[in-house]
Amino acid sequence: MSENNKLARYAAIFEDIKAGEIMSSNVVEISADKKIAHAKELMKIKKISGMPVVDENKQLIGIISIEDIIHAFEFNKINDPIHRIMSTQVVTIHKDDSLADVVDKFENYKYGRFPVVDDDKRVCGIISKEDILHGILEKFNLIYIHDQKRTSTLNTEYSAITGEKLKIEEAEFHYQIDSSDIDAAGTGAAMLKQFLTGKSFHSDIVRRVGVATYEAETNVVIHSRGQGDIYFFQHEDRFIVRVVDNGIGIEDLDKAMKEGYSTAPDYIRERGFGAGMGIANMKRFADKLVIISEKKVGTQVEMIFYLPTQTWPLI
Amino acid sequence: MIKVRDIVALLEAEVLSGESKLDEEVKSVGASDMISDILALTQPGMMVLTGYTYPQVIRTALVTDLLGLIVVRGKNIAPETIAYARENDFLLLRTRSYLYSSCGKLYATGLRGSDVGK
Under CATH, what is the fold of the domain A3-134? Predict the structure, then answer.
């Protein structure tokens, strides 16, 4: 299948994603009559490199970037109002634009992010390239990125699913997988389950975490030919489990996803493994699953389990 | 209600570990030698018939909250497997009955698999 055909196939899946669904809605905007110095301070505090500028009706009329501020410094205009130096040629995305429209904008204009507006030209969000990736991941529940350019997504400190920061030194649970011992496979998952049982979480979620982690861990032992780690994070309403290895990577994810398909050798099968259910089981038990794999670099499995929000007493 | 104790009697099984579970209710039964199947198909309160005896099977069972395992055909079980089960007070039975016959006997009592009557 050619690359273009593949793209067309995927484009159909994402057809109904709207810009409004993937944008970040906590956007920092500033009034055009404020001083440039004020914009500078805000950008410094918020650690952003540009901001939409709005008029008194909150309608978008421009954009101010770090370059504009440097320019203002050079010409000693730092106390001028923003509207004097802002760019008024703003390329916007409408909140009902399709994902394809959004991708086109990134292709055609070399900006890092675009403000998203509603029918009244009011800013309701902002979209960066990362937002697109996360939007797709949300939709797909699982994705395979097998591309040199994406090497940086492996072993990053950010969740591949939610984009939130995951510092491995802040993991509540860590287990180093011993890939040389097939009989020890699953020990990490069993320990993680014990760890969670001890914290009296609902037995259903603990069991789901246990099973899905078990499958991810045994995959590392059976297939990766590398070293691996299990990390567990608890964030307010969810558990995040990340299983990483530096092994050979997944050869063909479409096949690996198929129930019953396995590349496990006979001696592994004799031990009850290699049923070809590993990824299927992870998908079944995790609420969200993303697998990122690259040949000869490794594989990263990230799974999210949502904690039950409210339990009503049974009458 | 069928208790572990009833199954032990029916299959003339040895209780190798988990004596404290004899009065627990068995809710459903499954049979598999594949670890992934056990992981995918089990429900809490379920017992699984298997010919698989590596210590791994105990770990799998513990992860899935399986009620217990029944090793069929009187198979030899590695001492490590039994020791691991005892450490965790995990219910491990062994019967001389073959897999198919064991399934039949249990089915006849009214016990069903995880695919029936959810």
Answer: CBS-domain (3.10.580)
